[in-house]
Amino acid sequence: MNIGIVFYSKTGNTLSVAKKIQERLEKAGHAVNMEQIGIAEDKNKADIGQYDLVIFGSPVRAFSASPVIKEYLNQLNEGNKQAYCFVTHFLPFKWMGGKSALEQMKQFCKKKNIEVSKSGIISWSRNRETAIGKLADEFAKEA
Ligand SMILES: Cc1cc2nc3c(=O)[nH]c(=O)nc-3n(C[C@H](O)[C@H](O)[C@H](O)COP(=O)(O)O)c2cc1C
User: Fold this and answer.
1) Which of 41, 76, 117, 121 pairs with 105 at a CA distance of 20 to 30 A?
2) Which of 13, 34, 36, 89 to probe ligand 1 with, by most ligand atoms within 8 A of CB?
């Protein structure tokens, strides 16, 4: 499959998770393109039309998805697409921002007719290596 990972990352956490997911999917034989948005004006325009599957990643910002990923999802054209989503956050429990951020991303996707079939939350302060490994394995299953 041709897979795109479209993500925002300010301090590198979401980037490092995206890289592990990329490695895992490539090991499973997929072509994976990394698209980091929000770095410069022109880099906020990742075109997902070319992908069979797109994975959106974002840090949590004040119990929400980051404004960068929300803006990005909001400007997408409607498309019959399959997507996975993940968020990274600092606090130890999923209800401390992770769940609500993910829910927002799913709502944005729904509005664009993008079906989110898998998702995950990575807490930076709690068992993160194990959680990242599990998430990457889950995303590689049936992808
Ligand atoms: C302005 C701001 C707000 C944040 N709000 C939350 C929050 O509500 N819950 C949480 O667990 N972490 C919060 N964090 C921590 C980040 O979500 C966490 O460090 C994330 O992994 C950073 O990802 P990045 O390195 O890809 O930018 C916040 C960080 C910043 C800078």
Assistant:
1) 41
2) 89
